[in-house]
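To start, one record:
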Amino acid sequence: MSEWLSGWMLSLQGQPHWLGLAIFLAALTECLAIAGLLVPGTVLLFALAVLAGSGVLELWQTLLLAWLGGLCGDLLSYLLGRRQHQQIRNLPYLREHPQWLRAAEQYFQRYGVLSLLIGRFIGPLRPLLPMVAGMFDMPFLRFLLVSLLAAAGWSVAYLLPGWATGAALRLPLPEGFWPQLAGVAAGLGLLIALAVHGSLREQRQVTRLAAGLSLLLVLGLLLGWRQLGALDQGLFDLLQTARSARLDQWMVLLTAIGDRQVQTLAGLLLVLLLLLGRQRRAALFAATSLLSSALAVSLLKRLLERPRPAVLLESLGSFSLPSGHSAAAFALFLVLGVLAGRGQPGRWRVTWLLLAGMPALLVALSRVYLGVHWPTDILAGALLAGGLCAGSLWLVQRHSPLPALPARVWYGLLPVALLLAVYSLWGLPAALALYRY
């Protein structure tokens, strides 16, 4: 069986159309009710993405096909639940494992729409939640809008690593690239492992530990960026291979989210909304995290004076370490992730932080893609924001934990998010002209 699968995978390498169809069907199966529990779709998608990244398909094509496949899997699962309702319990495998469906029902009833976003990244729940949404007669339009967003984030999280691996294997990478990558990955892995382990075990000192280790890694990058030239050049060249006219426009839109004007407005509105909701400690945490990140970036850029890989216009500035876009995006989204996880068990706090980090990571990667930052620039910005955010949280929670925010505060964030989206789109034509080579 394994030999047949290996031969089939190799045959796809020279046939982009069949490879694209395979990615679509694998994504559909991974998100399809019941089938997604039985087929090792995650492993298969990674292998197919590696083949696509080896020069067969462009990045935007790979992500688009996976997004469409995942969306179709969601819709089919929803329609199955909407049509069968309680008869779903008699289907094969679900009849033998009723705990699968019971867990998905409890999760959906507790979190509603949010369960479709968060559960998308939890393997056993992913193929069942759309079906459960249909069973509970969730309005189709609401389900479709949420699924469009969830499938997009899922396709990036699951396909991008594989595509990047395939692209890296075919590039003539600089000497020393892999040892440098291993060293940096080991530091990041240690940070993430300790933070997740401490959160799951409800250890109060985990916040202070995460802050200290993050800032220690930032110090290592600030002192050793000259010795990480092979890593920077290799990853920079890797992202440049993904350039395309279609993807450029999306990346410019992403990078606009991290612009100083947008982030300043977002921070002010967030703090104001928390103060109006009488959440003074939460407002203090948000203001301290955002302001300290912005000030630290400005100070470090002036001290280090690291040149950009390619200065497109004078307005971009001449120094790049650490990345202001990366720091601002991670500071804002991590603050939102922390606030969303208040009052919940450790596993949900970790999930919220991971979800919050995804849009920030996309903003950071857009800077390298557009050729205005080195990879260590955005990594330093992300770690700096994470360390200062964790430090601010520790200071605010020294005597008692932050309480969960009331629902009225979260409802107030929706118009704020829409306002920021409109504000970002308003400046999109100018941004496209700025980043066009």
Notes: Residues 2-152 form one domain. DSSP finds 20 helices and no strands in the chain.
